[in-house]
Design goal:
By secondary structure, the protein is an all-alpha fold. The protein has helices spanning about 15-20, 20-50, 60-85, 90-95. The chain folds into 2 domains: about 1-55, no CATH class; about 55-95. The protein is built from 4 helices and no strands.
Length: about 100
């Protein structure tokens, strides 16, 4: 990197503690960027539709179903790789990294 900060793997004990969190910062940045790029166009389209006069009927049940489905997908696709990783020995996990 240009500023001289070296990002290490999170479990690399040779790195100082301040650089071990670099991966977490990158992950948070990626999540924010994806959330912004996903919500931004939708919010803009909804604002334009409201200004033009197109009604957008949204009921509480539709919101609940969407949140429930999103939570189920997030949990399922988060637990499956974590469960597989927990069955590996640390040596095998590092070997296939």
């Amino acid at each position: 990197m240009s500023d001289g900060v070296r990002c290490c793997r999170p479990l690399d004990s040779s790195c100082p503690a301040s650089t071990r969190t670099c991966g977490h910062r990158q992950a948070r940045c990626a999540v924010r960027l994806r959330g912004t790029t996903g919500c931004g166009p939708c919010c803009t389209a909804a604002a334009v539709a409201i200004r033009v006069g197109i009604p957008i009927p949204v009921s509480a049940s539709v919101i609940a179903i969407a949140l429930g489905f999103s939570a189920a997908v997030g949990i399922a696709f988060g637990l499956y790789p974590a469960q597989r990783a927990s069955r590996l020995s640390p040596i095998d996990a590092l070997r296939h990294e």
